[in-house]
Structure formats: C-alpha cells, structure tokens
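We modelled the chain as a single entity of 91 amino acids. Its sequence is:
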Amino acid sequence: MRGLIEKVVKPNDQRSFMYKPSFELLSYLGLSKIEDAPEYEKVKNEFEKINEQASKEEDALNNTSNDLDDEPQKIENTDNGNRNESSDARV
C-alpha cells in the first residue's frame, strides 16, 4: 500500500490534508490518468452532490447559530404590578 496514495495539503485549509492516487497506483491499474478510471464521471458527480449537500447543511447550521448570537431581547413585565399572593408568602 505504501506509495500508492499521496498525502497533500488542502489548498483552502493548510491545517488538513487530502489524499490522491499516486502515479504508481494509476500505472498498477493500467491508467494514465484518473479520468480514465471506469465510471469516473459518475463517481465524481456523486461526490460533488454529497459535498454540495453537506455545504448547504453547514450553512444552515451556521445561520442558526448566528441567530443565537444576536443581542437578547428585553421581555416586558405584563402583570401591571399585580402580585400573586403566593409569591408574598414566606416559608
């Protein structure tokens, strides 16, 4: 397995990695480029759909958490100064 997969830094996030097939793996499989793999376009499209859906879900979660970050709303007291007798009782 060693040498068949290459670890590369993600271009948009220098703290994480991506893995891609090495030239040796492609040669072993009889391919000159990854696009020559059977059903490559179909698999690529499925991954793109999954990534798009995950991005939408992440955006929705971020929007929800942003709503929670808004300043708290003031709640008005609507009892007009009327106190409940039970609240005055001492135990």
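As a brief sanity check on the tokenised model: The chain has three helices and two strands. The chain has a mean pLDDT of 81.
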